[in-house]
Specification:
Helix 1 packs parallel to helix 4, helix 6 crosses helix 7 and helix 10 packs antiparallel against helix 11. The chain has a six-stranded mixed β-sheet with strand order 1-2-3-5-7-10, with helices on both faces. The chain has a four-stranded mixed β-sheet with strand order 4-6-8-9. It folds into two domains: 196 residues, 2-enoyl-CoA Hydratase, Chain A, domain 1, CATH 3.90.226.10; 56 residues, Lyase 2-enoyl-coa Hydratase, Chain  A, domain 2. Strand 2, helix 1 and strand 3 form a beta-alpha-beta unit. It is of the alpha/beta class. The longest helix is centred in the first third of the chain and has 16 residues. It binds ligand LHQ. The site of ligand LHQ has 24 residues, from helix 2, helix 3 and strand 6.
């Protein structure tokens, strides 16, 4: 598809970098250009000290409808799915989970297929009341990819995950909140402002400590309690050695709010 609009919009506001998927006429279905732009923007965000929180959202009425099927069809039988996943979605999900800053997925509308995986991959998931999630893969006789088989059963259990995947059942915002697929649901009218306010509140928290917390949670998912306890001890030393900790202690003694944003 040719377009004069960038496929990814980027906006930095009060330490919050918002990355908006911008193919609204296809519900932000992902093509190579979009996936690479998003992965590269996340890598740049890692190195940019002005960024404390990243928000991933969608332009228009959709969040992300997964892989652009028009492009898959254009590829015909020649499309190598494994190679495609290794080149695009796997680095993207790795960049989100590995980013040493909090990532919020702000799900403004439908999240389908690999778009559902993207919606689930955030550290915090905020949904609009218009959001929905559908593990749509079985409708086209494919396997959930881009991390859905890892994220979803951890949130809802393996049987419920299988049921959602087998029937491609659409989960609306009310159900999503009950099932733990998102942390908050905001009104559709005020969604962008509510997400920005939430993200700014998160950006005021101690970034080094949150970064270490993300690493600890990532590690704990795949390791024993003994290993997690030991990793916590390693990370606690790094947190304690950071100026944020001294500021937290000072603020406590002085009975004021800590100012982590300046460190
Ligand atoms: C789309 C898409 C789309 C293109 C809506 N592509 N145009 C797979 C293969 C290979 C390697 C790597 O990984 C993957 C992973 C995957 O993600 S597989 C799953 C791919 N995604 C889907 O199968 C979702 C297909 N879309 C839908 O089921 C529906 O569109 C949903 C449920 C997302 C939304 O339904 P509605 O709200 O009723 O919207 P709509 O169907 O009317 O769509 C609006 C437009 O967006 C429409 O275009 P048009 O020109 O008719 O207005 C759709 O064709 C287009 N669109 N998804 N994935």
């Amino acid at each position: 598809m040719t377009t004069t609009q960038p496929v990814l919009l980027q906006n930095l506001n009060n330490a919050v970098l918002t990355l908006s998927l911008n193919r609204p006429e296809r519900l932000n279905a992902a093509n190579d250009e979009l996936l690479h732009a998003l992965t590269n923007a996340l890598k740049r965000a890692e190195a940019d000290a002005a960024v404390r929180v990243v928000v991933i959202t969608g332009a228009g009425r959709g969040f992300c409808a997964g892989q652009d099927l028009a492009e898959v069809q254009a590829g015909g039988a020649q499309t190598n799915f494994s190679e495609h996943l290794r080149r695009t979605y796997i680095p993207l999900i790795g960049a989100i989970r590995g980013l040493l800053k909090p990532v919020i997925t702000a799900v403004n509308g439908v999240a389908a297929g690999a778009g559902a995986s993207l919606a689930l991959s955030g550290d915090i998931r905020l949904w609009s009341e218009n959001a929905s999630l559908v593990e749509v893969f079985s409708n086209i006789a494919l396997v959930p990819d881009a991390g859905s088989t890892w994220f979803l059963p951890r949130l809802v259990g393996a049987s419920r995950a299988f049921e959602l995947m087998a029937f491609a059942e659409k989960v609306n915002a009310e159900m999503g909140l009950k099932m733990g697929l998102c942390e908050q649901v905001f009104s559709a009218e005020t969604f962008a402002a509510d997400v920005q306010a939430y993200a700014e509140r998160l950006a005021s928290r101690p970034l080094n400590a949150l970064s270490l917390t993300k690493q600890a949670l990532n590690f704990a998912q795949g390791n024993s309690l003994d290993a997690a306890l030991d990793f916590e001890a390693v990370l606690q030393q790094r947190a304690g050695d950071h100026p944020e900790h001294a500021e937290g202690l000072r603020a406590f003694a002085e009975k004021r709010k800590p100012e982590f944003g300046k460190l």
